[in-house]
Amino acid sequence: MPQAPHLAIGRLLLFNLLGALLIFSWLSPDLRFWTEVDDAVFFITNAWLTEENGAWVWLVAATNARLFDVVSFFILLAIYLWAISRDPLQEQKMLRWGGIGVTMLLVAVFMAQGVRMVIDYTHPSPTRVYEGVNLITEMVAFSTKDSSGSSFPGDHGVNLFLFTAFMWRYAGFKVMLVSLVAAVILSAPRILSGAHWFSDVYFGAIAINLIIAPWFLLTPLGPAMARGITAGMARVQALLPVR
Question: By the 8 A CB rule, do 81 and 171 touch?
Fold first, then answer.
């Protein structure tokens, strides 16, 4: 299975540059690309949420319910287990992937906290900006989500694309491609319900990953964290009584 080198400065700078270009496209007063795309995506998808499209409304509402978060977790877990099964290195495989998984969770926490500390900008979801829109919460009898007072950046999107980046780094292109498809599908419900703007995911979440994730995955930092956690887990395992 191909592994990226521990220090790939050229690729790191390339991904950072792409992230910087995304940020420039967002901040530049002369570019209205994201505003126009956000409005177009919202008004097109919101127009589909009508009583006449009852099955579609139910699907969007169901995929925005809390229970669907559990479904999403098991989809990612299945991809993670698939990645483990494809790893040709059998020695301490489960411990090694345990270290990778814990490292991914730590990076996700770091990104979430770091973004909150550095980025003080946020905005409400489109369903709170525009009046007279279709709300799935008024069309179904179960609890679901179609709005947010602070929708930027899309937290689901940040974590999903981080998972994709880790799969690319440690499991190769094929697993990464499946992870990317899963990220797109699993992040779509929030956009389709109007709880997030298109740019919350496809600008915010992707730009954050392009700027931060390479510093863990294309330098010795991430692999060193994973090895250290794996070693710690191995020591704990050695202390457990053998049955």
Answer: no
The HSE-up count of residue 94 (CA atoms within 13 Å, CB side) is: 2
Domains identified in the chain, total number: 1
C-alpha angle 199-205-209 in degrees, rounded to nearest 5: 145
Report DSSP letters for 73-97, one per residue.
Answer: HHHHHHHHHHHHHH----TTHHHHH
Tokens of 40: 């177009």
CATH assignment of the domain containing 164: 1.20.144
Residues 226 and 98: beta-carbon distance below 8 Å? no
What pLDDT, in 10s, does the model give residues 154-211?
A: 888 999 999 999 999 999 999 999 999 999 999 999 999 999 999 999 999 999 999 9
Specify if 4 maps to a domain: no
